[in-house]
Amino acid sequence: MASTSPSAGPFLLLLLLLLGCGQRAAAGTEELVFAEAKGEVTLTCWNVSAQAVLVEWFHGEPEAIPILFSSDDRLPSDARLSLVENSALHISGLRLQDEGNYTCKEMLLNETVHRHRIQLLVTSGPEKVDVNIYPTTPLPNGTLYAKKHDAINFTCTSDSRPVPKIEWVFSPSSSGPEVFTEVNSSLTYFVLSPMMPSYQGNYTCSATNPRTGHHKAVTQELLIYYPPPSSPRCWAQTSTENSKQVQLLCSWPKGYPHPTLQWTNKESLNWVINATGPADTSMATLDGSQRLHGKEFVCRGSHIVMEKANQACTVQLEGPSILSDGLRSCFIGEAVTMTCELTAGNPLAKITWLRNLSQPETEIRSGGRFLISQKGNVSTLLIQNCSSNSDSGYYVCKAENPLGLREVYIYLTVNDPVNIAGIVGGIVVFLLLVILTFSGFLLYFGPHLCLKANILRNQDAGDILVLVDSEEGEVLMETTEDCALQQGIALANGHSTWSAKGPRAEIPDEIVLEETKGEARPST
Ligand SMILES: *[C@@H]1O[C@H](CO)[C@@H](O)[C@H](O)[C@H]1NC(C)=O
Ligand SMILES: *[C@@H]1O[C@H](CO)[C@@H](O)[C@H](O)[C@H]1NC(C)=O
Ligand SMILES: *[C@@H]1O[C@H](CO)[C@@H](O)[C@H](O)[C@H]1NC(C)=O
Ligand SMILES: *[C@@H]1O[C@H](CO)[C@@H](O)[C@H](O)[C@H]1NC(C)=O
Ligand SMILES: *[C@@H]1O[C@H](CO)[C@@H](O)[C@H](O)[C@H]1NC(C)=O
Ligand SMILES: *[C@@H]1O[C@H](CO)[C@@H](O)[C@H](O)[C@H]1NC(C)=O
Ligand SMILES: *[C@@H]1O[C@H](CO)[C@@H](O)[C@H](O)[C@H]1NC(C)=O
Ligand SMILES: *[C@@H]1O[C@H](CO)[C@@H](O)[C@H](O)[C@H]1NC(C)=O
Ligand SMILES: *[C@@H]1O[C@H](CO)[C@@H](O)[C@H](O)[C@H]1NC(C)=O
Ligand SMILES: *[C@@H]1O[C@H](CO)[C@@H](O)[C@H](O)[C@H]1NC(C)=O
Ligand SMILES: *[C@@H]1O[C@H](CO)[C@@H](O)[C@H](O)[C@H]1NC(C)=O
What we know:
By secondary structure, this protein is an alpha+beta fold. Helix content is 18%, strand content 40%. It contains eight helices and 33 strands. A six-stranded mixed sheet has the order 10-11-17-16-13-14, with no helix packed on it. Strands 1-8-7-3-4 form a five-stranded mixed sheet, covered by helices on one side. Strand 5 and strand 6 (88-91) form a beta hairpin. The longest helix is centred in the C-terminal third of the chain and has 25 residues, at 420-444. The relative contact order is 0.07. The structure holds 2-acetamido-2-deoxy-beta-D-glucopyranose (NAG) (11 copies). One 2-acetamido-2-deoxy-beta-D-glucopyranose is lined by residues 173, 200-202, 221.
């Protein structure tokens, strides 16, 4: 910023000389003069009388030191010295060793008539300012970076005569500058600990020569780096522009600067997939195909301040698979629901419902008597006001992702209410048979604590109906954990959650949907 301007030298010198005049000791025999190194100075032997015959100059005390210069034509030993107006001593190319006490003696006929002493102080600098911020690492553009939480020592040194005034000024990126330290010394330091992102900014050390006002400053940009706090996260999604393309996404946010993220194929790790993305996210696009099924992709992240090995996350692609009801039935005028659950698929598959009455199959959309809803991975098709001629037949649940598609057919029977009695009777007989078989089966294969407990507690027909009718009945037997949960629920509700639905047993399918979905789903 500020530097020693060479043209200012002589002017300043003059000023200093005048200043020196003002500071002359009252005795009239002593004087203090400042002059800048490499510059020049004229030391005046004040009050030399007009009759002066001889003026002698000494560096030091006249008694102790040989004569430096005299006006009686003796040649100076040093070419930098000259006599001005027969009495003043002029020194050019000032050096630091020129500093000291000068005495001039006015001689009149072998007799000293006057003596004047001048103390010359040579000022210099600041020539340079050295800044050391430790521990830090330089970036190619000269900017330094420090790690968050480290203790950083900011040291600044400068050479100047007399001792400089040094100050550290911090200019954060956001707000105005603030002075950290200000000392009259050639070295100053301060320690910031722990380093925080808010300490990022420009640090300026400036040194000022208190005598000459000459000023020099060095500014150092310091960045505070820190790695992302968590691990990178990977996922796959279907491209919004092209439903046949898979997008692999990898995100590793909240680090500074942004990390480097690289997608690779797990089988050939050095084959890097081209990826784009803003900063802390990397996106690779692949053309979807059956061949990608089961393939794993790895995203590796690295960060400049992480000593540890790279962090990685993996994504495995798979085609969709679904689980659905096979058969459904409804009564004319009533409502019926069909469900279809996604059990696999990465990227997440999209579920659509189709009717295969016509060719090509037509997609069913929500509206009128149809309502399609999706909750989590389960898509539900609700048909209100069943009518026998138009609604019965095959329905298709289709799950599709860029790797492929899966379809499941569901057959809907629409029953005439006239036959209810017969149907119900048939069902009841059938179910009783099944119950008997089932109970025998249980007794034979040894007690399964949970099921036994449930059966013993809930002895009314409604409960047993549900247990048996459930299409996911096998799930109930899977783990004792599930049993415990169900028992807990049964106990909490006093009597039984299932028996509460007892009166609706004539539409058992509905109960199955509501009861088994919530509690007995495996936690995959
Ligand atoms: C020079 O002499 C005058 C009187 O002649 C005196 O007032 C003045 O203080 C002297 N200056 C110095 C520097 O001795
Ligand atoms: C010059 O004189 C002053 C007193 O006037 C003294 O303090 C100083 O030490 C002297 N300097 C040298 C180099 O002799
Ligand atoms: C000056 O004085 C010295 C002794 O004090 C003497 O030797 C010398 O001759 C004198 N010079 C003159 C020019 O008077
Ligand atoms: C120096 O490089 C770093 C990292 O590339 C950047 O953040 C910073 O702004 C650069 N500084 C200057 C002054 O160009
Ligand atoms: C900071 O650095 C300076 C110069 O290297 C050193 O003298 C000082 O002891 C250091 N201070 C701390 C607290 O490390
Ligand atoms: C430091 O100063 C330079 C130049 O004025 C500026 O471009 C840069 O953004 C500053 N750095 C910070 C972190 O404020
Ligand atoms: C530095 O010296 C100047 C005068 O030389 C004085 O005014 C100032 O208070 C001093 N500063 C410190 C921090 O000692
Ligand atoms: C990846 O990018 C490079 C250049 O950016 C290009 O030459 C290459 O064909 C790309 N590879 C693929 C598979 O897109
Ligand atoms: C949906 O299925 C996917 C696998 O296809 C699974 O990762 C996800 O956790 C499931 N979501 C819910 C809410 O069950
Ligand atoms: C409807 O689905 C059934 C069962 O797969 C199939 O046999 C029948 O051919 C399909 N009908 C039409 C019109 O596609
Ligand atoms: C059910 O359908 C019948 C005939 O299609 C119609 O008359 C009746 O209004 C419908 N009821 C509802 C609730 O939509």
